[in-house]
Amino acid sequence: MIRTFAVKLKPCCISFLAAQKVASKTIIQSACVQSSGAKEPFLSGINSSYVEEMYYAWLEDPKNVHKSWDTFFRNADPGASPGEAHQITTAADMQNKALLIRSQGLAMAPAKAEKLVEDHLAVQSLIRAYQIRGHHVAQLDPLGILDADLDSFVPSDLITTLDKLGFYGLHEGDLDKVFRLPTTTYIGGSETSLSLREIIRRLENSYCQHIGLEFMFINDVEQCQWIRQKFETPGIMKFTNEEKRTLLARLVRSTRFEDFLARKWSSEKRFGLEGCEVMIPALKAIIDKSSEMGLEYVILGMPHRGRLNVLANVIRKDLEQIFCQFDPKLEASDEGSGDVKYHLGMYHERINRATNKQITLSLVANPSHLEAVDPVVQGKTKAEQFYRGDAEGKKVMSILVHGDAAFAGQGVVYETFHLSDLPSYTTNGTIHVVVNNQIGFTTDPRMARSSPYPTDVARVVNAPIFHVNADDPEAVIYVCSVAAEWRNTFNKDVVVDLVCYRRSGHNEMDEPMFTQPLMYKQIHKQVPVVKKYADKLISEGIVSLQEFEEEIAKYDKICEESYTQSKDKKILNIKHWLDSPWPGFFTLEGEPKSMTCPPTGIPEDMLSHIGNIASSVPVENFKIHSGLSRILKGRLEMTKNCLVDWALAEYMAFGSLLKEGIHVRLSGQDVERGTFSHRHHVLHDQDVDRRTCVPMNHLWPDQAPYTVCNSSLSEYGVLGFELGFAMASPNALVLWEAQFGDFHNTAQCIIDQFISSGQAKWVRHNGIVLLLPHGMEGMGPEHSSARPERFLQMSNDDCDAYPEFTPDYEVTQLYDCNWIVVNCSTPGNYFHVLRRQILLPFRKPLIVFSPKSLLRHPEAKSHFEEMKTGTVFRRVILESGAACHNPQNVRRVIFCTGKVYYELVKERHQKQLESQVAITRLEQIAPFPYDLVKEEVDKYHNAELVWCQEEHKNMGYYDYIQPRFLTLLNHTRPIWYVGRDPAAAPATGNKNTHHVELRRFLDGAFNLQCFEGKTF
Predict the structure, then answer these.
(1) Hey, which family's this protein in (predicted)?
(2) Which of 658, 666, 728, 889 pairs as cysteine with 383 (C-beta 3.0–4.6 A)?
(3) Are 844 and 666 in contact (CB under 8 A)?
């Protein structure tokens, strides 16, 4: 019995049938018109009835007509104008063949001709049905108990028995009838016609065995044809005996590595790969094929399952380094907290043995937050392509390994896919490998997703999806090779879905029978894939049993020797697990080359030059918006007066770094113009669509490039991407700006798991800058607070430890912290902190609570004198007015940070308290500037100390600064709080309430009697 199926004729199919009939008439008319203009007498006598006879005879079997008619009908174009079809040969040939056809009685009645056309169209619909729906009945599950598409019912439009061939109007008697093949299939190979029986057989071989293809949703005919050719062409999936032996050897290594760990550390979690051992040969096949096509660098991201195996057998990390991770007696690393072994990354340069070419492999470290690493890998890949000038991604590529439940369930997967074709984010195609265990921890896939496949999210970017039974190694390797070719050919994402199983529970200590008893009964019976494949090759005479056993023994010996060597390791050095080394930046020991930071100021003529360019349009015949003309004119006026506002200070910081060869990349939602319309780094021609100008790239002849790019409306994915970009090189300033500061909470996972703790866990230095617009402007709870309390809570400096003020204290304090948190109150200080970020001898994340109203505040301007050569970032800006001249008469020192300073100064002036109240600004909040704060509190030894903030008491900075003040003062003096009362929401949404709160805490700040008599 032959199995076949079809798709119901929907209205679109009926239209298709009608179109085919029209096409037939067009071909016939073309032949008649062509013959009517012929010079030969007989040719002019051919009428449409005769041509019609020829055409329908040819449709039934091309051998029924003379080869000249066969040639004509093969090449005739239904869309050609009359007379343009392929020329018919001599009149004598046509006359003779016509007499033969008539004598054989092959002239068909109209009804029979109609049936013949419909039969051919039915076969075309049948072929298309396999191409579209064949994957639904493919044999994908190695266990044979589940359907990869979660549906065991075959829909009524999928016919699986011959007696239902009538769905197409075909019958069993048609099975041996020959049909012409359409140009949209390659099942014929060199043949153009096949019997219906053979058509069905070949379609089943292509689409319904161990490979299920989803690609017909792709809206590019060339790409669809490319895939059809790769999978439909008869005999295309061939392997040499040597390739089969290599595949078996790789399976042995993958399997025996897991077996070795299970024997030596039976009670340790390792998240082994058992049940999908074929993933190792799969990844190696992708890398081999890509290396063959010229690839030099592969960046991988993956969850914990199978990571140790990938490190051992793909990245080729020394086995003793992996095994020593299991030793409970190992001493802690000398730097950072480290991480569990199945989270760590690795970087390795080696020779690819399949191609004898140099290949660099990097496995990016990641937390248990599964898909969180996806955009990080993409950003790192983009950076490596950028720095190598690899615009088409022919040298650098990313591979992402996913679990099925996470791929379907984690939104960052969708966000990452949507970055894949954006100009400033594309990596020219990623190969996604899904380890489809058909279970998520203990959750059945039918409870874990609403889509048929876990991979359906990839359809949004027209990525082809290749499902493959992981117990068929040759099918897996072929699919992976095609995936590598696809990515190289079309520079687009592709998904390989390895449908497999998980032999143990979620980890090796877990009991899966609690929740999946039937599945695990079958798994316990399942023969390992290496045994199945070895038996197959042995039966084919490709390897002998002895050779197979010798391969096992050889790898077991390697593992045992490495295990012995691992016992000699006394210290676990986490530096062996770097995924992004920066050669030449640190010393060989991984330490900074110095603990000093040069001044961050620049010459005045450079400031003026940058200001002039920022105020101009350095492209001829470029029409800008009239409102922008006024903004540029205002910038020019400021430059002439040696002043800068916030936007111009940022311009000068970026521009000066570009001159020094530092690439600057600014990304985020609406950053090109700026959310608050202050930046305007990209100018748009008002008359020519998509014509733009970036003046920053016209500053210097040999400057580094400046990249400014609006991102998709994503925080999680984009911030992860920029983090990955910043990982690639220390000689770049990479900034991500949130549209509003509180929007960063959508990317909290990246902040918590990578930015805050990345160095401690993975020795991952990173200089990414987060610009978070912050300030209580009466704009409501979702546009006010960047949640500074969260960043300060995660800062690692000890609030109870009194520091030692050494000569290099400022820099060593920065080196010891996990990140730097600032809230600048002047454009000049913002300029300096951005430049300091690059001039420091190490890299730390920088969190900047950037302003909103201060962008245009008339008092928030800086003079060139604050930015000239020799000037530096001021961690604390001291009181410089009347109060500082008579400190013994000052009754109160108000410490604050950010925008509230200007409100306090205005209030102090109105109350005429300039000589009695000093106001000091903390520009750098973390790490806490103990040395400078101590000088200030000692100076005003008679004054009350007050912390004033505009945020609510349970938010903002107070909980961070209060214990540090008390440590500094040895608990001898209090630091009083002035600000808004505790609240659940970060700000009120009522404008009047906002002003009432502001008035209340300003009055409290200058009520010099409010704290008298109180104790702390």
Answers:
(1) Belongs to the alpha-ketoglutarate dehydrogenase family.
(2) 728
(3) no
pLDDT at site 162: 63
Question: 3-state SS string over 381-434?
Answer: HHHHHHHCCCCCCCCEEEEEEEEHHHHHHCHHHHHHHHHCCCCCCCCCCEEEEE
Has residue 404 got a pLDDT over 80? yes
CATH 3.40.50.12470 placement within the chain: 604-774+823-866
Total number of residues shown for the chain? 1016
Helix (H) or strand (E) holding 917: strand 917-922
CATH 3.40.50.970 segments of the chain: 241-577
When pLDDT is averaged across residues 989-997 and rounded to a whole number, the result is 93
Condensed to tens digits (0 to 9), the pLDDT of residues 253-279 reads 999 999 999 999 888 888 889 999 999
pLDDT tens sequence across 306-336: 999 999 999 998 898 888 888 766 555 545 5
Residue 142: cis peptide before it, omega within 30 degrees of 0: no
E-strand ranges in 669-809 read: 683-684, 692-693, 706-710, 732-737, 769-773
| Digit-coded pLDDT (tens) for 594-634 | 889 999 999 999 999 999 999 999 999 999 999 999 999 99
Q: Coil, helix or strand for 1011?
A: coil
Distance CA 248, CA 555 (A): 13
Q: Round to whole Å and give the CA distance between 766 and 780.
A: 33
Structure tokens belonging to residue 837: 């970020």
The DSSP annotation for 796-812 comes to: ---TTPPPP--TTHHHH
**Distances from the Cα of 42 to the Cα of 85, 90, 144, 837, angstroms:** 19, 9, 66, 89
Contacts of 807 (CB under 8 A, 6+ apart): none
**Which helix (H) or strand (E) is 445 found in, with range?**
helix 445-448
Q: Which of 155, 158, 134, 138 is nearest to 147 (CA)?
A: 138
Q: Checking DSSP bridges between strand 494-499 and strand 465-469, what pairing results, if any? A: parallel
Q: Would you give the DSSP letter of residue 755?
A: I
Tell me the three state secondary structure of residue 242: helix
For residue 10, what are the CA distances in angstroms to 7, 125, 627, 868? 8, 11, 55, 74
Query: CATH number of 604-774+823-866: 3.30.460.10, 3.40.50.12470, 3.40.50.720, 2.60.40.10?
Result: 3.40.50.12470
Rounded Cα distance, 391 and 396, in Å? 10
State residue 84's pLDDT score.
Answer: 44
CATH architecture classification, 883-1005: 3-Layer(aba) Sandwich (3.40)
Sign of the four-CA dihedral 203, 204, 206, 212: positive
Give the span between the Cα atoms of 456 and 465, in whole angstroms: 8
Quote the Cα angle for 813-819-825, to 5°. 90
Query: 419 falls in which pLDDT band (50, 70, 90)?
Result: very high
E strand or H helix at 254, and its extent? helix 241-264
Residue where the block lists tokens 């500053």: 699
Read off the DSSP letter of residue 915. Answer: T
How is domain 241-577 classified at the CATH fold level? Rossmann fold (3.40.50)
Amino acid sitting at position 655: G
> How does 124-157 read in b/e, with b if 16+ C-beta sit within 10 Å?
bbbbbbbbbbbbbbbbbbbbeebbbbbeeeeeee
Bridge partners, 732 (sequence order): 663
Ramachandran quadrant class, 670 (left: phi over 0; alpha: psi -120 to 50; beta: rest): left
In the chain, CATH 3.40.50.11610 covers: 883-1005
* Helix boundaries (H) for 40-195: 41-44, 48-60, 67-75, 91-103, 110-133
At a CB cut-off of 8 Å and minimum separation 6, what does 198 contact? none
**pLDDT given for residue 580 in this prediction:** 77
CA 115, distance to chain mean position in Å, is 52
Q: What values do phi and psi take at 111, rounded to 5?
A: -65, -40
**Is the separation of the CB atoms in 1016 and 963 below 8 Å?**
no
